[in-house]
Design goal:
Layout: H1 3-20, H2 31-59, H3 72-86, E1 88-89, E2 95-96, H4 98-109, H5 114-124, H6 129-136, H7 140-155, H8 158-168, H9 175-187, H10 189-222, H11 226-259
Antiparallel strand pairs: 1-2
Length: 260
């Protein structure tokens, strides 16, 4: 394995373990708890796509007239990841993005999608992130998460975007959470099956094939530039810290619900 890749993986391992063992998983005891978790997590699913598309814009030609841009190998890697994330196959064989599949799962289980739709529609209407947060009533932890992602996007630096995508945006799904979802699916198959499908598909596509492509892309972009690798490590660490904060927000809201 590339030594620089291994160095980043070693540096982020404590944070990865914190995420895998986060207390939020221990308080998801029923369908209502899961709904709250999904209302936080959906922001990460959405801005993951924005981060991915920023890489495609930076690393391929997305304007006219067309010209070949950069490395053909990197173009191949990013385009393959985009195709899988933006037009995967849902449970019925219909082509959809993972974000759309997640929204379907939220609708099926009865999670509130009004907030995320309000947020996205405000952006579509031309509002900036801060205005969209206010329109939707986005929780502070989700704001911080999305703000950091867009700091990386707006940097215009492909090596930072790639490293954050590769190391900082792994949706680390612990076995405990999968077990919870499987148990809920057995009790409520008509409400959880789409979320279970999303998780299974995510593990199959993102956790295996795409992760290897992303590692290769990051290694190509950072190459032998030591400054790039150091910046990549810093960005990856910060991204995982923001994920912990997002999970903290979900935990606090679930706990508050249980006290009512």
């Amino acid at each position: 394995m590339n030594k620089a890749i291994q160095k980043i993986q070693d540096a982020i391992e404590p944070l990865r373990q914190e995420i895998i063992n986060h207390k939020v998983y221990g308080v998801i005891n029923d369908l209502e708890d899961l709904k709250i978790f999904m209302q936080f997590h959906v922001y990460a699913v959405w801005d993951f796509m924005s981060l991915l598309k920023s890489l495609q814009i930076n690393l391929t030609c997305t304007s006219l007239p067309w010209f070949p841009v950069g490395s053909g190998n990197i173009r191949y890697l990013i385009n393959e990841i985009v195709a899988g994330e933006e037009s995967d196959v849902d449970h019925s064989g219909v082509r959809k993005s993972h974000f759309e599949m997640y929204l379907d799962a939220m609708d099926q289980c009865g999670a509130d999608t009004a907030e995320i739709y309000s947020f996205v529609n405000a952006l579509k209407a031309g509002e900036d992130l801060n205005a969209a947060y206010l329109t939707a009533g986005t929780p502070a932890e989700a704001r911080a998460f999305v703000d950091f992602t867009f700091e990386i996007i707006n940097s215009g630096q492909a090596h930072l975007q790639a490293s954050t995508f590769t190391f900082g945006r792994e949706d680390l799904i612990p076995n405990m959470f999968l077990s919870i979802v499987n148990d809920l699916n057995q009790k409520f198959p008509d409400q959880i099956s789409l979320f279970k499908y999303y998780l299974d598909r995510h593990i199959e596509v993102d956790g295996d094939h795409h992760s290897h492509l992303a590692l290769e892309m990051t290694a190509d972009l950072c190459s032998d530039n030591q400054a790039y690798w150091e910046a990549a490590e810093t960005a990856s660490i910060e991204s995982l810290k923001k994920r912990l904060l997002l999970w903290d927000g979900a935990f606090e809201m679930i706990k508050a619900k249980s006290l009512v």
